[in-house]
Amino acid sequence: MELVYSGKVRDLYADGDDLIMVASDRVSVYDVVLPTPIPDKGRVLTQLSLWWFGQLTDVITSHVISATDVPAQWAGRAIRCRRLRMLPVECIARGYLAGLGLVSYNETGAISGVRLPPGLGEGSRLAEPVFTPTTKAAAGHDRPMTRLEVAELVGASVAADLERVTLEVYRRGAELAASRGIVIADTKLEFGMAPDGRLMLADEVLTPDSSRFWLASAWQPGRPQRSLDKQFLRDWSSGLNWDRQPPGPAIPAEIVAATRERYLELYARLTGRELG
Ligand code: PZK
To answer: CA 153 to CA 142: how far, in whole Å?
Structure first.
């Protein structure tokens, strides 16, 4: 099969008219892919995305064609998808202050043009989730977009749909996760258009690689929050003499095992299923 896109931790192949999205066991910390894989990570993220797509069918159609009609060597961690015309907007919803949302709030008191009350800090919960779209930069860093810029790129009607669907996916995901003790602080979605003009949810959805997951019982606004999936990697790597530039360090076996357990636990907790 022809490799059409290769990401840090996932690859996309063409198979006739379809695409096959393959999640690897690669893991990144501080945006650097480490040389040691986390066994089962690709399967956990793929099965979690598929589960969410299923939970969201009344909100939005997804690009999924089949989770099983994929080459045997990728079974469990690949999805056959429709090839869409992707929209050039990263659709982000934020329910808590972290990352670039926090940077914007600290500089301006607002995120994506939405004024927030004073006195919020790192990890604070927002009264309402906010849509904070960014550009999809081919290289370098994504830049915040205004609603007007989104509308100029995709048209006012699609822009309104992107905002509404992004916030609804986030609300549904965050609410369900909260009932299972997990905070989803924010999430990044990608959408595309089918040839008949229908908007569809693409890529992955509500996974720890596309969203910030925190343990609700450990949430404490006013300081950086502990990552549910990558905290062992961060704690271990911050004790090294590593400048956070590639190449990253090899991961010791006990950190691999603990991180793998985290992913499996996260999947079981959210879905109520065990990964086979
Ligand atoms: C598409 N990406 C991101 C990059 C990945 C994924 N259904 C689709 N139709 C057309 N294009 C895409 C999709 C999806 N999803 C997704 N780039 C293009 C991307 C690298 C690896 F797995």
So the answer is: 16
- Assess whether the C-beta atom of 90 lies below 6 angstroms from ligand 1: no
User: Is 183's C-beta closer than 6 angstroms to any atom of ligand 1?
Assistant: no
Residue nearest to atom 3 of ligand 1 (CA): 203
Nearest Cα neighbor of 214 from 110, 116, 122, 92 is 122
Q: Is 205 in the pocket of ligand 1 (CB under 6 A)?
A: no
pLDDT value at position 84? 98
Which ligand 1 atom lies nearest to the CA of residue 81? 7
Query: pLDDT tens across 83-102, in order?
Result: 999 999 999 999 999 999 99
pLDDT score, position 142: 82
- Helices 147-154 and 156-178 cross at an angle (nearest 10°) of 120
pTM of the entire structure? 0.97
Q: What is the mean pLDDT of the chain?
A: 97
53, 173, 241, 269 from 130: Cα distances, Å: 21, 14, 38, 26
Confidence of residue 45 (pLDDT cuts 50, 70, 90): very high
